[in-house]
Amino acid sequence: MKTIAKEELLNFHYSKMEVLSEPIEITKRNMDLQRAMLLGNTAHGKVKITFLDFQHNLFQVETTIWAVTEEIVCLKGNLFIPKNAIIEID
């Protein structure tokens, strides 16, 4: 796994496929994203997001989550990661 700066996300291309295979994993990811968004909006706290790019390479970025939609996670600095590319939020 490679750790990157959030600014590097501008250069990423993501798969359109879901990276998690189990519905319980997807539910957990959604709950973790909601908690991380509350942390970002109330305390400006950062989280580590582990995700896959379109070639299935594993990356991690530490950033603040500002908003979560049905398909997209909005990060500080007007950056985005598709929800389906995220494996884990710490």
Descriptive account of the structure:
The protein is of the alpha+beta class and 90 residues long. It has one domain. The two termini are 15 Å apart. The mean pLDDT is 95. It has one helix and seven strands. 18% of the residues are buried.
Topology, please?
Layout: E1 2-4, H1 23-43, E2 47-52, E3 58-63, E4 65-68, E5 72-75, E6 79-82, E7 86-89
Parallel strand pairs: 1-3
Antiparallel strand pairs: 2-3, 2-7, 4-5, 5-6
Mean pLDDT: 95
Please give the share of residues in helix.
Answer: 10-25%
Q: What is the gyration radius calculated from CA atoms?
A: 12 Å
Largest sheet: 4 strands, mixed
- Per the principal axes of the C-alpha atoms, what is the gross shape? globular
The unreliable regions are none
N-to-C SSE string, H for helix and E for strand: EHEEEEEE
Strand fraction equals 25-35%
Provide the domain count: 1
**Count of DSSP-assigned helices:** 1
Q: Distance N terminus to C terminus? A: 15 Å
Count all strands and give the number: 7
SS-derived structural category: alpha+beta
- Spatial arrangement of strands, main beta sheet: 1-3-2-7
Gist?
Helix content is 23%, strand content 34%. The protein is α+β, with helices and mostly antiparallel strands and 90 residues long. The strands form two sheets. A four-stranded mixed sheet has the order 1-3-2-7, with helices on one face. Strands 4-5-6 form a three-stranded antiparallel sheet.
